[in-house]
Amino acid sequence: MVVYLMLVLSALLGVVFFSMLERKILSLIQIRKGPNSVMLMGLLQSVVDAVKLFMKEQMKLYSVSIFIYLVSPACMAILSIFIWAFYPLSSDIFMFEYSMLLFVMVTSLEAYFLLFMGWFSSNKFSMMGSLRGVSQIISFEINIMLIILMMIYIWETASFLSVLKLQSEMVSGLWYLLYLAVLMFLLVVVELNRSPVDMVEGESELVSGFNIEYMSYGLSVVFISEFSGMIIMCFIVGSLFLCSFLLLALMLCFVLLIIRSVFPRVRYDLLMMFMWKSVLPLIMGLYYLYMLM
């Protein structure tokens, strides 16, 4: 339990510096100044921003269901932190024999709280953002589930730790499953609602989407859950395909930041067509080929 608490604290600390790194990279690519005032080179800018957000006034909204309105973002943050329990360390902390299936189950619960945040905010823009988010989550969750089922079939185990041990013995995880690794990373980008597929929070057309009625505590917790999810998803992909090499998992996090800076936002209908008409048949075809092998 102590190891898990240390892992969670490290993840939360990583969220602080990861958000600062994102702003630094964006400023470098766009040739402008980034955060550089707070402490040395702006290292504590994210901490100051978090404190400022938590100190903001929490307005009382009369037309919302206040309990679900306040609990939903906290539940999203708890889910993103709980996923770290599935990450395979040198020894499995909770000894989840079916950790890969539990991972799919826990990540799919995010859709409910995202829907609650939009629905119980009593705002049509929040509702539009939550509906688009739920449909996007359903589209990628099916593909991620099929890839994980394929990995279970290939490695004959449903435990992240067992897959990691088998990869270390064969030393061929990435090269043997390179196409699946690329597909999984693309699906993770969609799952994280990162640009260019941030359809849930497209500011230009959704006015911040499902979290438009959130402020102070709620908005801060949503940001924490999003950045924590970015880190753990990259590490999960690393444990499935990259033998859990720390440097390669960090490189995936860096690629996420580069993608946001380089590519423009895609159309929502094109994204849904790509998921259902291109990615899903491709994964099902690969699954059929593996069944024949």
From TrEMBL:
Transmembrane segments annotated in the record for this chain: 67-87, 99-121, 133-155, 175-194, 230-258, 270-290
Main localisation: mitochondrion
UniProt-listed PANTHER family: NADH DEHYDROGENASE SUBUNIT 1, NADH-UBIQUINONE OXIDOREDUCTASE CHAIN 1
Function, as annotated: Core subunit of the mitochondrial membrane respiratory chain NADH dehydrogenase (Complex I) that is believed to belong to the minimal assembly required for catalysis. Complex I functions in the transfer of electrons from NADH to the respiratory chain. The immediate electron acceptor for the enzyme is believed to be ubiquinone.
Source species, domain of life: Eukaryota
Keywords, sorted A to Z: Membrane, Mitochondrion, NAD, Transmembrane, Transmembrane helix, Transport, Ubiquinone
Topology in the lipid bilayer: Multi-pass membrane protein
EC number: 7.1.1.2
Family: Belongs to the complex I subunit 1 family.
Catalyzed reactions per annotation: a ubiquinone + NADH + 5 H(+)(in) = a ubiquinol + NAD(+) + 4 H(+)(out)
Biological process terms in GO annotation: aerobic respiration
UniProt xrefs under InterPro entries: NADH_UbQ_OxRdtase_su1/FPO, NADH_UbQ_OxRdtase_su1_CS
UniProt xrefs under PROSITE patterns: COMPLEX1_ND1_1
A family per Pfam: NADHdh
Protein's recorded name: NADH-ubiquinone oxidoreductase chain 1
GO molecular function: NADH dehydrogenase (ubiquinone) activity; NADH dehydrogenase activity
Subcellular location: Mitochondrion inner membrane; Mitochondrion membrane
